[in-house]
Amino acid sequence: MKRNRIERILSLAICMTIVSWGIAQNCRITGRVAVPELQGKNIAVLDMNTGKALASTKIVDSVFTLNIEVEEPFAAMLKTDPQNSNPRSYYFLSIVAEPGDIYADLVTDSLSGTLLNDRYNKIAKKCRYEVSVINAYYRQMNEATNTPADVLGELEEKASRCYEGLIAYVIESYKGNKDNPISALTMDMLIDYDGADYETIIELLDGASPAVTSYQPLVQKLSKMEILSHTAAGKPFIDLDLTDYKTGKPIKLSKVIKDKVALIDFWASWCAPCRREIPNIKKIHEQYGGKDFVVVSLNVWDKPDGQAKAIKDMNMTWTQLTDPTRNATDVYGVDGIPQILLIGKDGKIIARDLRGEEIEKAVKKALGR
Length: 369
Fold this sequence. Notes:
By secondary structure, the chain is of the alpha+beta class. It contains twelve helices and 15 strands. The longest helix is centred in the middle third of the chain and has 29 residues, at 115-143.
């Protein structure tokens, strides 16, 4: 076959594809949810870009059928009602909504029936297997007693190699599907696996299709990653307009920590994990507090009376600040507390997410003791 004829056929095929994607076609999703508590409850197919339900039906005898109209493939999710009073007790499964017949089992997390779903099922299945292997290695390490250090080291090395292989596979899967919604789903996986930093993700997204760049779950995660990239270890701290709890007067964080190593604890009186860390912070304040080191408890998401009672009950005698604008957690990308970070004398963040014994180790190292 001559080259010009091949080109004409390819051009015709491309045009036919474009035309066909402009016409709404039926996507029929049948499936199974073999969970007794979900019988008679609803299952819906959601557009992952908008979060809106496109269709819903009841699960009867463990099976369901949903029909939607699709002009071009997009990332979607099958999601059941909660199976009990816990709002998070639902089953879900990511799919690619595309014309054709799709079969989905939400208990075994399996997909089949159309080109993109067959491909995505293969990727997701391999990823789940690799994650189970990695978790098995870490379980062995956590449960090990009287195990020689070299054996533990070998287990950790195996887990690390598996993790690196998993990340490489996800990136490869992303690159191989840049022209379809699987790229959005695999990029989402990469971020969830904590497989790359913000700068690397941005590089991978260069030249990506709108299926990725407009994928809202990914857009939201990238926004969070960007904030965290600005307040990661090694970055200069960002100043905050706060209130001194003792005087009630406005004060800048920079004034409190200037020329000192500073331990900053984002906390709230109602937060049980926060309260568990207070004795550790109190001990560190008593042992290391002085001209070159300051401990700051920054109260967030709290009520004044709750803060006052906790400070009195737990004898929190070190510097207490509050965030009247509720802006501090946004600036530092904090979506869970306690968030304990350490800032050096040079104003650069040394560490985030410190807990327990790690706090004192980091403080001693920063102070050179």
